[in-house]
Write a structure and sequence with these properties.
By secondary structure, the protein is an alpha/beta fold. The chain is 47% helix and 12% strand. It is built from eleven helices and eight strands. Strands 1-8-7-6-5-4-3-2 form an eight-stranded parallel beta sheet. Helix 8 runs parallel beside helix 9 (222-230) and helix 9 (222-230) packs antiparallel against helix 10 (233-250). The longest helix is centred in the C-terminal third of the chain and has 18 residues, at 233-250. The model has no long low-confidence stretch (mean pLDDT 98).
Length: 268
């Protein structure tokens, strides 16, 4: 498999996971969130990623999230499920649950918390991808996962049979640019912090954007992507500036990104 094995492109927002007052996944609200993104032109959604608070959910909850999301989205868009866990067995088991639910792909980050070598990270992905059927989007977010997928490692991982894409969320333009140059001919490249540099990423040739801000900022998803892709420089510049301001606001004065995003959604 390679980039031509899938048609993933455009804005696929990383959606929040709604919970009710008892801490259970609120499936009605989940449906509303997904429907809203599709109505705004999103080509799909990513569920159970960092924005989706996978780190606060059990494996059973994550599997239910995948099934509930598929029931809503049907065939109206791409559904990517965040299935990364620390161990191989756990990652494989959850990815098979995503496949059973009908998800289109798995977003898999490297093992987190403990610092690993590139060879150890490669071995993890090799073991996982040998035992699953879904196409894989690599997930580079070293700010959360500790381990960084640098361009040379992404190129190695791209040779594994199931790997078709990468979500580059390092927030480091040099790492994004290096990754794009290394793999864009074989893998689909998505910009994670599109609120920070999504416009130049798409102008460079990124296949799409995956970001949390479209959860509460309508223009930050498909409109930002299309403005950059289609050469509407005035609109693209305005949207990028707004994304930068929102990023600064949501992470200032002790705020953190995911609670800020949900608070803004509640206000709206």
């Amino acid at each position: 498999m390679n980039r031509d094995s899938v048609s993933w492109s455009g804005a696929m927002p990383a959606i929040t996971t709604p919970f009710d007052d008892n801490g259970k996944i609120d499936e009605r609200e989940l449906g509303d969130v997904i429907d809203r993104h599709l109505a705004l032109g999103a080509t799909g959604v990513v569920v159970g990623g960092c924005t989706g608070e996978f780190w606060a959910m059990s494996a059973d909850e994550r599997a239910r999230l995948f099934a509930s999301s598929k029931a809503v989205i049907g065939t109206r868009g791409t559904l990517i499920a965040g299935t990364g866990m620390i161990g191989v067995e756990e990652t494989v088991a959850l990815t098979l649950q995503a496949e059973k639910a009908g998800c289109d792909g798995a977003l898999i980050l490297p093992p987190y918390f403990i610092k690993l070598t590139d060879d150890e990270i490669h071995a993890h992905y090799a073991d996982v991808t040998a035992r699953i059927g879904l196409p894989v989007m690599l997930y580079n977010i070293p700010g959360n996962a500790v381990n960084c997928l640098r361009p040379t490692l992404v190129a190695r991982l791209g040779q594994l049979e199931r790997v078709v894409a990468v979500k580059e969320s390092s927030g480091d333009w040099n790492n994004f640019y290096g990754t794009f140059l290394a793999v864009h001919e074989s893998l689909r490249v998505f910009c994670g912090p599109s609120s920070v540099f999504g416009v130049p990423a798409v102008q460079l040739g990124a296949d799409g954007v995956i970001d949390c801000f479209p959860n509460m900022w309508d223009e930050g998803g498909q409109m930002l992507f299309e403005a950059a892709r289609d050469g509407d420089t005035t609109l693209a510049a305005r949207l990028q500036a707004m994304g930068r301001r929102l990023t600064d606001l949501f992470t200032s004065d002790g705020r953190t990104l995911y609670p800020s995003t949900k608070a803004a959604m509640d206000l709206l």
